[in-house]
Structure to design on (98 residues):
């Protein structure tokens, strides 16, 4: 039988994913841009959410509406950068096989 805290965390996760579906993709990208700059300049350990919020032009609460914590934001920043890089990569032309 799950503990009460397990039920709460499961409920919280479901609420978080419902809320995420309603959030602005443009605002998320704005946060990711600010986070990328701060992580590059200060490193993960020294970067703080207040600085990231300021750089992104959003409140700290807005960041936490989109991301659970700094680690989640860092992970999302990496994923976003990979996605952006893939968009810019041109597919290699097919070469005839030998």
């Amino acid at each position: 039988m799950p503990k009460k805290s397990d039920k709460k965390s499961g409920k919280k996760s479901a609420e978080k994913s419902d809320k995420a579906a309603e959030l602005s993709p443009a605002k998320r990208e704005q946060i990711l841009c600010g986070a990328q700059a701060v992580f590059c300049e200060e490193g993960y350990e020294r970067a703080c959410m207040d600085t990231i919020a300021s750089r992104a032009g959003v409140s700290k609460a807005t960041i936490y509406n989109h991301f659970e914590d700094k680690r989640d934001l860092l992970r999302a920043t990496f994923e976003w950068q990979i996605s952006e890089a893939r968009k810019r990569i041109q597919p290699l032309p097919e070469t005839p096989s030998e």
